[in-house]
């Protein structure tokens, strides 16, 4: 079932478009990564959905609710740089957030304890936030975003500022949370997106340039990099390789012939057929699939 539908959302600052006609939808229970380089417009989209910014045009709808006022009750938001009162304890902060979300004092206290446990910082509940690690602060920020039991959780760069341990903690937590709610999170790191998201939205200069599951995108943009070494005459074999139909590019670097191809199976077959038929003095054949970053570059350059 579709939870969120975003239709032709645009945002301009003065005359500068920073989000341009963005449309997408999120099904219930899915985790979607909004991925793009710095300045692509990720924060602008998330802040608009959180009700903190007005779009210049376009709209979004959550379930069958019509007005923004209703929608905000069902959306939790963790900003890119959450601000905490460092002198408060984690528990005090969550009770305070609960009261801001119009929970009664008793409900805010109960919910704070429940969330401290859920995000794994219950033992540190009475410590001042100033003494929390980056990972603990991010957990507290997520707990704050969950205080009113949202159906959609928006996380702006939830792991970018964390060390590898903090990053692992939060990614694992997101895996758990996505069992209970839909998540839309921004990142500029493809491997993080790959790890927890069901689908990617690739944002470039305010526009969604590609979307789909990582597997679908891998298949679509997959390229192979093949490295060949020869006992002798590498230049002569470069010329022969360039004539093969599956090869898109080749160059020689430090006595290794680097070859690029889109159809990996065909390229391998053509190279082996030519090598055995022509008695090539081939000493090594190495196949590397393109990295996720290569895929992203390919998408934004098309
Ligand atoms: N208040 C503002 N006034 C003018 N321009 C702005 C404002 N806020 C953001 N921008 C511009 O909008 C563009 C998109 O910014 P946004 O913060 O949404 O990108 P982002 O993808 O989240 O990048 P980052 O990863 O760096 O946070 C940038 O060029 C930014 O400079």
TrEMBL record:
<dbReference type="GO" id="GO:0005524">
    <property type="term" value="F:ATP binding"/>
</dbReference>
<dbReference type="Pfam" id="PF13732">
    <property type="entry name" value="DrrA1-3_C"/>
</dbReference>
<keyword id="KW-0813">Transport</keyword>
<dbReference type="Pfam" id="PF00005">
    <property type="entry name" value="ABC_tran"/>
</dbReference>
<dbReference type="InterPro" id="IPR027417">
    <property type="entry name" value="P-loop_NTPase"/>
</dbReference>
<dbReference type="InterPro" id="IPR003439">
    <property type="entry name" value="ABC_transporter-like_ATP-bd"/>
</dbReference>
<protein>
    <submittedName>
        <fullName>ABC-2 type transport system ATP-binding protein</fullName>
    </submittedName>
</protein>
<dbReference type="InterPro" id="IPR017871">
    <property type="entry name" value="ABC_transporter-like_CS"/>
</dbReference>
<dbReference type="InterPro" id="IPR025302">
    <property type="entry name" value="DrrA1/2-like_C"/>
</dbReference>
<dbReference type="InterPro" id="IPR003593">
    <property type="entry name" value="AAA+_ATPase"/>
</dbReference>
<feature type="domain" description="ABC transporter">
    <location>
        <begin position="4"/>
        <end position="230"/>
    </location>
</feature>
<keyword id="KW-0067">ATP-binding</keyword>
<keyword id="KW-0547">Nucleotide-binding</keyword>
<comment type="similarity">
    <text>Belongs to the ABC transporter superfamily.</text>
</comment>
């Amino acid at each position: 079932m579709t939870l969120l539908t975003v239709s032709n959302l645009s945002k301009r600052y003065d005359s500068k478009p920073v989000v341009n006609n963005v449309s997408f939808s999120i099904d219930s229970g899915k985790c979607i990564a909004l991925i793009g380089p710095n300045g692509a417009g990720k924060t602008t989209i998330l802040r608009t959905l959180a009700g903190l910014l007005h779009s210049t045009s376009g709209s979004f709808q959550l379930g069958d609710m019509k007005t923004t006022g209703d929608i905000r009750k069902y959306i939790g938001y963790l900003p890119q740089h959450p601000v905490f009162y460092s002198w408060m304890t984690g528990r005090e902060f969550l009770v305070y957030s609960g009261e801001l979300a119009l929970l009664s004092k008793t409900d805010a206290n109960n919910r704070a304890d429940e969330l401290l446990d859920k995000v794994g910082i219950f033992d540190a509940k009475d410590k001042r936030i100033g003494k929390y690690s980056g990972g603990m602060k991010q957990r507290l920020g997520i707990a704050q975003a969950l205080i009113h039991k949202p159906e959609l959780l928006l996380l702006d760069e939830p792991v970018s500022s964390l060390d590898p341990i903090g990053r692992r903690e939060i990614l694992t937590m997101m895996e758990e949370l996505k069992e209970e709610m839909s998540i839309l999170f921004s990142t500029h790191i493809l491997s993080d997106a790959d790890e927890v998201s069901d689908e990617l939205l690739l944002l470039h200069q305010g526009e969604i340039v590609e979307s789909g599951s990582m597997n679908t995108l891998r298949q679509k943009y997959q390229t192979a990099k093949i490295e060949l070494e020869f006992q002798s005459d590498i230049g002569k074999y470069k010329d022969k390789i360039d004539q093969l139909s599956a090869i898109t590019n080749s160059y020689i670097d430090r006595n290794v012939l680097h070859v690029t191809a889109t159809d990996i199976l065909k390229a391998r077959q053509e190279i082996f057929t030519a090598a055995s038929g022509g008695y090539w003095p081939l000493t090594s054949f190495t196949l590397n699939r393109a990295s996720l970053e290569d895929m992203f570059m390919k998408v934004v350059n098309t």
